[in-house]
């Protein structure tokens, strides 16, 4: 049995120690049933307070753990953001290099194609010019042959068939033909060097 002095001197009472408390009896003492009922109620209140205190401490520990996690999550998020930014920057640089390299290749291909087109155009134009020159030369030959036949028919001796050529005076030959007529007769165009 616990003596009343022990109960009064104890610093903290547990629900069990409150229920087990006993008191000295006097002649006109208190009703023991009422005292023990009161002590039971106080013990239940202390027990409920201990339970609330444990719950409060557990909540506080959870809150502290969450705060700690949030603080470290912020650090981790910052690290992740920096890392993601660095990776994005590397990817952007690689993409820029790829685009630049692709653009250079396309420009080189375009230039090569341009050279091919120009060369083809020059070849085609050259062939057309040569074809035109051949056609013009054939046409000129035909005109000259027709002219020679006409001259033969008229009985005129062309200047080129003469053994000697008289000297010219003032751009005309002695037979009255102009310089261009002589060149034309000799198969030369005006402005080019013909045989006189």
Distance between the termini: 162 Å
- The helix/strand series, from N terminus to C terminus, equals HHHH
Query: For the residues shown, what is the average pLDDT?
Result: 76
The general outline is rod-shaped
What's the tally of helices? 4
Taking pLDDT < 50 over at least 5 consecutive residues as the criterion, the unreliable ranges are: 1-5
Total E-strand runs? 0
Structure classification:
mainly alpha
**How is the main sheet built?**
none
Percent range for helical residues? over 70%
As a percent range, the share of strand residues is under 5%
Rounded radius of gyration (Å): 64 Å
Could you walk me through the main structural features you see in this protein, from its secondary elements to its overall organization?
By secondary structure, this protein is an all-alpha fold. It has four helices and no strands. The chain has helices at residues 4-9, 15-19, 32-154, 179-185. The radius of gyration is 64 Å and the shape is rod-shaped.
């Amino acid at each position: 049995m616990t003596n009343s002095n022990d109960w009064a001197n104890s610093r903290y009472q547990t629900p069990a120690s409150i229920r087990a408390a006993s008191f000295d009896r006097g002649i006109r003492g208190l009703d023991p049933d009422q005292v023990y009922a009161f002590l039971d109620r106080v013990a239940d209140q202390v027990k409920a307070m201990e339970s609330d205190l444990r719950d409060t401490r557990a909540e506080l520990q959870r809150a502290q753990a969450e705060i700690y996690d949030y603080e470290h999550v912020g650090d981790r998020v910052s690290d992740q953001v920096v890392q993601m930014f660095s990776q994005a920057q590397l990817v952007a640089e690689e993409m820029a290099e790829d685009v630049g390299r692709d653009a250079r290749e396309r420009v080189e291909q375009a230039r090569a194609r341009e050279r091919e087109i120009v060369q083809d155009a020059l070849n085609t134009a050259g062939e057309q010019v040569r074809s035109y020159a051949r056609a013009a030369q054939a046409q000129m030959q035909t005109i000259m042959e027709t002219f020679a036949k006409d001259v033969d028919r008229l009985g005129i001796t062309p200047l080129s068939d003469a053994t000697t050529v008289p000297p010219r005076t003032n751009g005309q030959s002695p037979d009255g033909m102009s310089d261009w007529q002589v060149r034309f007769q000799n198969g030369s165009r005006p402005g080019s060097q013909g045989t006189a």
